[in-house]
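anyone seen this seq b4? input:
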Amino acid sequence: MNRRTLFRVAGAVSVAALISACVPMASEPDIIDIAASDDQFSTLVAAVTAAGLVETLKGDGPFTVFAPTNDAFAALPAGTVESLLKPENKDQLIKVLTYHVVPGAVTSDQLAGKRLNVATVQGQNVHVDGRKGVRVNKSRVTTADIMASNGVIHVIDRVLLPN
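predicted toks r here
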């Protein structure tokens, strides 16, 4: 390889490196991105969308979301999910969904060995028991500490229903 070719190749590599350094890195996925990419949360994502809460949960946060799976929604009495998803029941749906969200990013190690009443975004408290695994009201956290750019997700096996 002659010197001119060597300098051209080196120059091209330098320009490519410079351009790639200027391209923004893909940001870490947020709570909605993570939920939408996991089929076990399709009902939750549909509910969040129907409630108009997508932009809120894509916001800066941080949030802790106790995320019920599709199986958790399926365990509700027949017709409950369909009823909540109707436009005329949007306020009730928002109340249920925001009952699953706690301000701040709370990981399972912060809950270990403790019993707490924690205020939700909805306004009521949930009872968290971290003495043997983590339970929230009557639901069990089946997967803890899914970290998102704007908080943390804990997968739960039951839908939390406010009073």
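Residues 1-26 have pLDDT under 50 and may be disordered. The first strand starts at residue 63 and ends at 68. kinda curious what u guys think
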